[in-house]
Recover the amino acids of this structure.
């Protein structure tokens, strides 16, 4: 829980900075990571592109968590 709290605090802090300075959405932070072919992001991506990618990606994981929770509760049965 503590890790989740720290993570969300970091996200809120970044969103507050962007709210105060909307021009930062077009910044291109250099992330020294290899490009993932499936990610669609690279080291020239803007902050806006990165945020949109995260928001498009989140529902799939939410669905996975929901599915696993239903399995654990016994609402889904393998036949």
């Amino acid at each position: 829980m503590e890790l989740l709290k720290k993570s969300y605090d970091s996200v809120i802090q970044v969103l507050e900075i962007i709210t105060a300075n909307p021009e930062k959405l077009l910044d291109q932070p250099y992330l020294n990571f290899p490009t993932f072919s499936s990610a669609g992001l690279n080291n020239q991506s803007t902050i806006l592109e990165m945020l949109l990618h995260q928001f498009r990606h989140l529902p799939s994981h939410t669905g996975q968590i929901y599915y696993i929770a239903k399995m654990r509760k016994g609402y889904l049965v393998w036949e």
The chain has one domain: 2-73. The radius of gyration is 17 Å. The chain is about 60% helix and 0% strand.
